[in-house]
Design goal:
- This protein is of the alpha/beta class.
- It is built from ten helices and seven strands.
- Helices cover about 50% and strands about 15% of the residues.
- It has a seven-stranded parallel beta sheet with strand order 3-2-1-4-5-6-7, sandwiched between helices.
Length: about 280
């Protein structure tokens, strides 16, 4: 029996896939043989971004579009099909349209990676902003619910599906100054286990990845002193790489993991251990 991860003939939908962890996930799934749809709110015109979020988000959207187009080109160079589509995971009509387009153009949606999320609401509990708390719930938790519910009928019909939710050690350990973020990530673990229980009879597995500190663009933009402090808590005394997370996701999406469901898989360098 071969232990090669082979996703040939599968179609993956990766939210928040234009950069960071999502980009690594998309490329790795493609290397394993899957066709990939990159769904991201940053995949939109500069004008649209400016109207919705202002000039900083306009720049982010432009950068996101560049990353998305580059990723699509890399996937197509592998001989896979790929699309980059704008998707606001908080908008159920938007999500439904993306899933419908995926099925129409690529034939199915077999894999969902719920990677889209927010990580910029930082402040001790008394300073947490109610509007950002609500936004984080909508994006990180309800967004995953929206996407999973949209792909569910297609996976049930085919009798096969893989859903991977991107949680965090903050959802297990809590996060100082991250009340909204850690709460949404804890909620994803409950959603994961419920979907695993309900999906099993239909050939659908659902698992969560629990990353620790990972060297994404967001990590490198943060305070270097704080980054070093957090990294020193890991067993390896360093941050992980996006590829570490992507490798775990590819395994969970493959037939090799057909009897693995409802788990929270730590890809954290042991940050949750008592290290001294």
């Amino acid at each position: 029996m071969s232990l090669e991860i082979d996703l040939s003939g599968r179609v993956a939908l990766v939210t928040g896939g234009s950069r960071g962890l999502g980009r690594a996930d998309a490329l790795t799934l493609a290397h394993a043989g899957a066709d990939v749809v990159i769904a991201d709110i940053l995949v939109e015109s500069d004008t649209s971004a400016a109207e919705r979020y202002g000039t900083l988000a306009q720049a982010a959207a432009a950068q996101g579009m560049v990353h998305a187009e580059s990723t699509v080109e890399e996937i197509q160079a592998l001989g896979r099909r790929a699309l980059a589509v704008r998707c606001d995971v908080t908008d159920r009509e938007d999500v439904a349209a993306v899933v419908s387009r995926t099925v129409d153009e690529l034939g199915s949606v077999d894999i969902l990676v719920n990677n889209a999320g927010t990580l910029d609401h930082v402040g001790q509990f008394a300073d947490q902003q109610p509007e950002l708390w609500e936004r984080d719930l909508r994006v990180n938790l309800t967004g995953a619910f929206n996407c999973a519910q949209a792909v569910w009928p297609h996976m049930r019909e085919r009798g096969w599906g893989r859903i991977v939710n991107m949680a965090s050690v903050a959802g297990v350990l809590g996060g100082f100054g991250q009340a909204s973020y850690s709460t949404t990530k804890a909620g994803l673990l409950g959603l994961t286990r419920t979907l695993a229980m309900e999906g099993g009879r239909h050939g659908i597995t659902c698992n969560a990845i629990v990353p620790g500190i990972i060297g994404t663009e967001a990590f490198h933009m943060a305070n270097p002193v704080m980054n070093e402090r957090i990294a020193s808590r890991t067993v390896f005394r360093r941050p992980g790489e996006p590829q570490d997370v992507a490798n775990a996701i590819a395994f969970l999406c493959s037939d090799l993991a057909s009897y693995v469901t409802g788990i929270a898989l730590n890809v954290s360098g042991g940050v949750e251990l008592f290290v001294f």
